[in-house]
Amino acid sequence: MQNCVCRSTTTDLFSSAHAAVLLGGGFCQEKHSSPSEATISDPISASLRVLPCKEDPSRMKLNVAGVRSYPSNCVITWMTVHFLSKKLGIAMYPVNIECTNLMVTGYLDMQLDLAALHRHPKIARSSLYVPDLISCLRLRLKEDSRMNLSIFPAGTMVMTGPPSLAVAYAVLEKWLPIIRQFGTIPADPHEHRRKQAAEQQQFAEDVKRAAKTQATKGVVHPTPLIRRSRSSVVA
After folding, report:
1. What is the pLDDT of residue 137?
2. Residue 138, phi then psi, degrees to nearest 5
3. 153, 62, 69, 139: which is closest to 104 by C-alpha?
4. pLDDT in tens, 29-60
């Protein structure tokens, strides 16, 4: 699992502009964008989005992405809200933390003929394949959801949109028998395994570095990393 996006709400209302300043993020009021965005928990580079809660105007909605597991997301959400609570002087905490979107990667032990796969009747109805623009076949896994599977010629697959790993596995079991029919020559799995091991080692080192930095500074909140977009204006 490469990314776990979680949604939660706070027990009290606070200023998005003030939060953006405290976290070194950006603030904007453009349509279809969140009022406040920031990158938190350096060097893991999790991102936080703060939005108004339409269901309960007395609360704020938080979206945290860039974390590889649900427990880690919960920890970072609590740390961030704790930091904001101290700085803003508001006794608040996150509630109803739920996973809304995962990004899961997989690897088949074979290379794939995507052109032939795209001509399969069941695949053709739900897929997009334009090799001149991008070298993958994009398959919509469910008509009534945003779950998609990007399939690459080397056998790599990237799924976005499942709310849990259980749902991801269940959907893959339906499509994998068809996908495997269009395997060509076996691919070398060692390159993928070496890359995966290197990513896991780098992530573990990042976690240790973040913990060491916080211990050195004597704080319990994430160290903010300032990252502003061109259209963002810091309040």
Report:
1. 92
2. -105, 120
3. 69
4. 555 456 666 666 555 667 888 888 888 888 88
121 pLDDT above the threshold of 80: yes
> Residue 43: is the preceding peptide bond cis (ω within 30°)?
yes
Confidence class of residue 151 from pLDDT cuts 50, 70 and 90? Answer: very high
Task: Go through 89-127 and write b for each residue having 16 or more CB atoms within 10 A of its CB, e for each that does not.
Answer: eeebebeebebebbbbeebbebbbebeebbeeeebeeeb
What is each CA distance from 3 to 41, 91, 95, in whole angstroms?
A: 15, 30, 21
Domains in the chain, start-ordered, CATH in brackets?
3-101+205-217 (3.30.310), 110-185 (3.30.310.10)
Cβ within 8 Å of residue 145, ≥6 positions away: 161
Residue 41: closest CA among 70, 16, 5, 77: 77
* 74/78 Cα distance (integer angstroms): 6
Residue type, 230: R
For residue 163, which of 104, 69, 103, 99 has the smallest C-alpha distance? 99
Q: Give the three-state DSSP class for 130.
A: coil
β-pair partners for 157: 106, 151
> Residue 219 has what DSSP assignment?
-
3-state secondary structure of 120: coil
All residues at 6 or more sequence positions from 197 whose CB lies less than 8 Å from its CB, including other chains? none
